[in-house]
Structure formats: C-alpha cells, structure tokens
C-alpha cells in the first residue's frame, strides 16, 4: 500500500544539522587540506630523490639512510591521513532521504559520492519511465546508464555551474499492476522549475532542502521507475 503525502522539510534540515556536527572540519577547509597534502607530497618526493641519488653514488651512511627512511614513512602516513580526511569531507558524507514508491526488479544508485548534478534526463508519460543523471564526482564527469524503460516522452534539463536542485516533488500510484513514480518536478537555487514530468498521482511526497542540495538518486525500477529517494549534501 502506498503511504500518505509526506513533507520532509523539517527532517531534511535536521539531518544536515547532525551531519555538520559529525564533521571535524567544515567544507571551507578543503582548500587548506589540499595545500597541506601537496606540501607533504613535495617533501616526500624530495626525500625519495635524495635516497636514490645517494644509492647511485654509493655514499649513503647506514644511520643517515635509516633516518631518511623514517622521515619518509612519517610523511607517507601524514599524506594518507590528510587524503582520507579530504575525501571523507568532500565526497563521502552525502546522506540518503527516502525512498518513496514500490518494489522493482532492478536497483539503481546514482551519485552517492557526487558533488554536483550537471544534467537530468527522463522518459515520462502516464508514469516516469526512466531516469538518467550526469554529475561531477571528485572532478570526474560521470554519465549514468538509464534506469527504467524507453516509454513516454523524452525530457532533459541541464544545471550550470553553481546551480543545484534544492526542491523535488513526486507522486506515486498503481499502474499496470505496479506501484510507480508517476510524476517528478524539480526546482533549483536559481529559481528555475523543471517539470512536472509525468501524470499526477494521488500520493505525493516533497523534498524541500533549505541548507543543502540534491546530488543523486537511488531506488528501484523495472520498465518504469518504481521507487525513488535522494542523496543530499550540505552547501
């Protein structure tokens, strides 16, 4: 049975409050971490070069070699620790909200470590038939395969630099013996509206995000999109 209409405004923003508390550093420190890591890498590479040069000249004292090796291992540990901290802060703390809808044969999971969505593609008619997303993940551009079938009309919209989805509404109902997502609509921080795509259903859900952005989606599908949830990241 499909659940009642849901408004997640309070829950979503409470999640962000808890997420910020769980982080040791805010996102504003990412650039500083990157600079620290580059400095340590430079020191590490300098020590490696000295060791190799001394080995070639056969003039490397045992005590000096051991000290350089200890320094090298220490720097390696520091680089690894900062890199782990950097990637954890930047890309691996997106949170899941949802999902809404029914069961489907296949699972999709798009953008769990994404930084920004750049393009959304859908097929929709009576229901939302499919979903595809392009996003940026750790500076790499990723285009996902289609989740769902090819029925319905094709729709596409792009997000420019600095633009992100901060509001989504959808609806759910039974169609051809399946519980399906029948409609999706998106809004961005620049005031743009995309959709609604598909036909309205009797059970609606909304995801308004006050202090963050939608960076991905997850759910289930067969030849239609049966269930959908979102990945959120703080701004």
From TrEMBL:
Keywords: Coiled coil, Lectin. GO terms for molecular function: carbohydrate binding. Signal peptide: none annotated. This is Jacalin-type lectin domain-containing protein. The keyword Cell cycle does not apply. CDD domains: Jacalin. The lineage of its organism: Eukaryota, Viridiplantae, Streptophyta, Embryophyta, Tracheophyta. Residues 30-85 form a coiled coil. InterPro entries: Jacalin-like_lectin_dom, Jacalin-like_lectin_dom_plant. Residues 94-234 form the Jacalin-type lectin domain.
């Amino acid at each position: 049975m499909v659940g009642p209409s849901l408004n997640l405004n309070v829950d979503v923003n409470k999640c962000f409050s808890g997420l910020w508390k769980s982080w040791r550093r805010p996102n504003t420190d990412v650039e500083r971490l990157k600079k620290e890591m580059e400095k340590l890498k430079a020191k590490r590479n300098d020590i490696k070069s000295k060791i190799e040069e001394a080995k070639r000249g056969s003039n490397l004292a045992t005590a000096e070699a051991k000290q350089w090796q200890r320094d090298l291992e220490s720097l390696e540990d520091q680089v690894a620790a900062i890199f782990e901290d950097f990637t954890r802060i930047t890309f691996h703390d997106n949170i899941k909200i949802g999902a809404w809808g029914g069961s489907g044969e296949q699972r999709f999971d798009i953008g769990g470590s994404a930084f920004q969505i750049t393009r959304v593609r859908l097929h929709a008619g009576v229901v939302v038939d499919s979903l595809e997303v392009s996003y940026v993940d750790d500076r790499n551009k990723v285009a996902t395969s289609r989740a769902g079938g090819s029925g319905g009309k094709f729709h596409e919209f792009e997000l420019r630099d600095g633009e992100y989805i901060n509001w989504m509404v959808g609806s759910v109902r039974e169609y051809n013996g399946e519980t399906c997502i029948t409609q999706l609509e998106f809004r961005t921080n620049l005031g743009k509206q995309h959709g609604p795509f598909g036909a309205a259903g009797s059970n609606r859900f909304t995801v308004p995000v006050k202090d963050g952005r939608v960076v991905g989606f997850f759910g289930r599908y067969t030849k239609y999109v049966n269930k959908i949830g979102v990945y959120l990241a703080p701004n």
